[in-house]
Amino acid sequence: MAATDSSLPIARRSAWRDDCMEVVCGIANAGGGRLVLDADVDGRGVVKRKTNRLMKTIPSAVAAALGLTCAMELVLEEGRMCLEVVVPPAPEPISYHGTFYLYQNSFNTVLDNEALDRLLQPAAETDMKWETRPVIQASLDDLNMGLVTRYTGALRDTDITTDLDEVAAIEEKLRRAGLMTGVGTPTNAGILLLHDQPQRYIAGATVRIGFFGGRAGSPIFEDEVTGSLIEQVHRTVELIFDKYLADTGPVQPRGTHGSPPLPRDAVHEAVLNAVAHKNYESGTPIQVSVFADRLCIDNVGRPPRTWTVTALLGRHTSRPNNPNLVSALRSLGIIDGWGNGVGAMRMECIEAGLPEPIFELRDDETMVCFQMDEDSVMRTSLSGNDPATHASLTRSALSDAHAMAREAALQHDIGLTANDEKVLSMIDIDGRLTAPRIAKSLGVSESTVRRSFRRLRDLGIIDRVGSDKAGFWRVL
């Protein structure tokens, strides 16, 4: 289950009314939070048409009016079903129909001139964000015109600088996206996304891959991936699977350990997350460490400091370190911007028959480690002195739900099967998964999945909300 930050504002309304957009604006200006509405459900917990319609229309309405991406969730609060609008923080103060709002102390207030000055002043006093700083050595001509036209939707891939009107339109779109300044100079975010060799201007804007075999220390051999961020993601994943994990490469998980290969989509998502959320001021490349039994991706940059691994594993909004860069990647259709990446990685590994990836949050770094066989987690935990992982990694670090399930099983003097834990992992990610879908993903029978449902429910780990047809599983 997702951990919620009690310091974030929560507004409650019985229904979506005209003033709700003002409340969303006020919550965004207050640093993000939630708007909770009553859900329209029948006595069996089946969602009615009105609520289904709101779940589809509210995000698009908020995006059109405020430029924000809100998540919609059905939640159970105090014994009743509610519709939750998860509002991200506004990167800078925003207005609705020209009026600025701020939601504080359960009230949504209109900001007068003095209050508005106070809201705007901190942003004016702080240093310019790194991704919006200009790269004065570069200009539009230095960018990859193919990438520029792909992003801006320009009509031609070449010779666009011969048409002044087209150039002006391109520069305006890049300025609005924070990829170029008002004087025609690319920003750091613009260089990362649209330049062929961003490391020329931004130190460490690369990905390093190293093969360490069965030990730590210096890599036995390594590669450094350069290019635009999009190219870095694709090239990194290609090298991992076509060189390091190929049948002729140094790591052969099928032959060596008899377990399935790593899911390519999960590794792609992990590399993409690292590239998008890295702290590029650090000057440190993203590091991909390949061992005989695991693959670890480590980058400088982490989610908000109030977040724990539990919060990261649960339902959460996207809180990017580089909002302009992430917004541009979302516009290109490369990421979805909903904060679903961690859940997707977990699900891909479960469906591939592998242990879930392990996530670790340090002071200024994030690491994800993919295990390529069932015993590698325990071996890593027992060794405890591997500098490449910087900390012992135990199975209990995967999710609080697993630790709670094992404790409950011990109290009842029974054991959880491997299928029980996999089923628990899958419904912890998505409680609306059905027994047939889980059975197909795990390669087991539906009756096996239903036995796991019963065992986990009897242990008080999960319960059913709503009907068998339209409800969902909730991890307690």
Automatic annotation (TrEMBL):
<dbReference type="GO" id="GO:0043565">
    <property type="term" value="F:sequence-specific DNA binding"/>
</dbReference>
<dbReference type="Pfam" id="PF13749">
    <property type="entry name" value="HATPase_c_4"/>
</dbReference>
<dbReference type="InterPro" id="IPR036388">
    <property type="entry name" value="WH-like_DNA-bd_sf"/>
</dbReference>
<dbReference type="InterPro" id="IPR011991">
    <property type="entry name" value="ArsR-like_HTH"/>
</dbReference>
<dbReference type="InterPro" id="IPR036390">
    <property type="entry name" value="WH_DNA-bd_sf"/>
</dbReference>
<dbReference type="InterPro" id="IPR038475">
    <property type="entry name" value="RecG_C_sf"/>
</dbReference>
<dbReference type="Pfam" id="PF13412">
    <property type="entry name" value="HTH_24"/>
</dbReference>
<dbReference type="InterPro" id="IPR000485">
    <property type="entry name" value="AsnC-type_HTH_dom"/>
</dbReference>
<protein>
    <submittedName>
        <fullName>Uncharacterized protein</fullName>
    </submittedName>
</protein>
